[in-house]
Amino acid sequence: MQTARTGLTLMATALLAACSGSIVPPSATHPPKVQKAPTPGLGQPADPVVRPVASTPVAAAPAIIAAGSASALAAGVIAAPVSVSSGLTAGRETKALTAFRVSCPSLVKRSDASGLTQPADWQAACTAARTWPDGDAARYFGEQFDVVQVADGKAFATGYYEPEIAGSRTQSDAYAVPVYRRPPELVEIDLGQFSETLKGKKIRGQVKGNSFVPYADRAAIDQGALAGRGLEIAWAADAAEFFFLQVQGSGRLRLPDGSVMRIGYDGQNGRDYTAIGKLMRERGLLAPGEATMQGIINWIRTHPAEGTAIMRENRSWVFFKELTGAGPLGALGLPLTPGGSVAVDPAYVPLGAPVLLSMDRADADGIWIAQDTGGAIKGSNRFDTFWGAGANARATAGGMSAKGVAFILLPKGALARIQAAKANGTPQP
């Protein structure tokens, strides 16, 4: 979900992906409401984490990694030492084919930031996917794609999901945490329009006088920087649960009458994302095995003042809009498939492409479709698996942390063109 998928990111254990050296600051004068007592289904101490079933990753091919590589082409692309028919699909191929069909309208017309493919490369695979029987999905991926490895292939995968938390369309003592839409003064600037050396770089902030300045951070927004302007689209019951919904980038608000309001990413304040799970682990606040979304929420509930302070160390804030159509939506603007979609760094994986993961836990294995991005999902072979909504999705995503090997499935002909261009010294996009 394009969230933390454009400015912060993702999943619970992806909270371990960034760091900060500061200490926990004193509690603020006006902390947001954090529930002190457990709320059934919303982060209580019994909140489960799925324990992984061990799996043995396949061996990657030896590869020379280009230091400081900014794309898949620069990092190095080679034919993989496996095939789709090697028994690596892990039963996930049917969901993957469903998700791939959703990607096809975008694949055949969008540019590929990784430089690995061109829109026309995908036409044959997308045409075949339209009528290919779901029950024969493994053969489809085996016949339509070549399997490649980027850099050393060593992969790390986390998980995310569509959370559901208690909320209301109106403010009250029970629902006091504001859910803001994007403020009109928040501006995003594409720096690549000003300099070729800044191509692909963007910043967000606001204009004050004759200056472009950073936008309000989490602490300022918590303390009322946006209050009274009519920007609230809803109100959440608990700040800790809402914090993690922001990390996910979209979610559901269970309203007092039992109905559901779906909300999706509508921008981010431009401040850097800081993974509080890593901060808490480094400071000895979490015992071994507790650095999961569930463990972090439980600690914040037990220490509300300190929890408010440490949440504010993540200065990033995500804004939302109400969703009324299919969703949640990924970075392609298309609905995500639970158990079939994965977030990637588009500089290393073409958005919409199939990805084959062979990891040290079985539930992450198999074919996924790259349909999303994330602020913490950076570099080659870094992935964030999407699990949908509900208790099982929360339990799986909240503890997902898998290591292994990753491969990308490129449409037939793309690898041969890359290899020929490299052999001839031809510049590639």
Description of the molecule:
This protein is an alpha+beta fold and 429 residues long. The protein folds into 2 domains: 13-49 and 159-182 and 225-323, Beta Barrel (Ribosomal Protein L25, Chain P); 72-156 and 335-424, Barwin-like endoglucanases (Beta Barrel), CATH 2.40.40. The chain is 22% helix and 23% strand. The protein is built from 11 helices and 17 strands. It has helices at 72-75, 93-107, 123-131, 137-144, 218-222, 239-248, 276-282, 293-302, 304-312, 391-398, 414-424, and strands at residues 77-79, 145-150, 154-162, 164-168, 177-180, 187-190, 202-208, 211-213, 232-236, 250-254, 260-268, 318-323, 341-343, 354-359, 366-372, 382-389, 402-411. The protein has a 6-stranded mixed β-barrel with strand order 3-16-13-15-14-17. A 6-stranded mixed sheet has the order 5-9-4-10-11-12. The protein has a 3-stranded antiparallel sheet with strand order 6-7-8, with no helix packed on it. A hairpin with a 5-residue loop joins strand 10 (250-254) and strand 11. Helix 2 crosses helix 4 (137-144). The longest helix is centred in the first third of the chain and has 15 residues, at 93-107. It is globular and about 65 Å long. The two termini are 27 Å apart. Mean pLDDT is 86; it is low at 2-30 and 37-46.
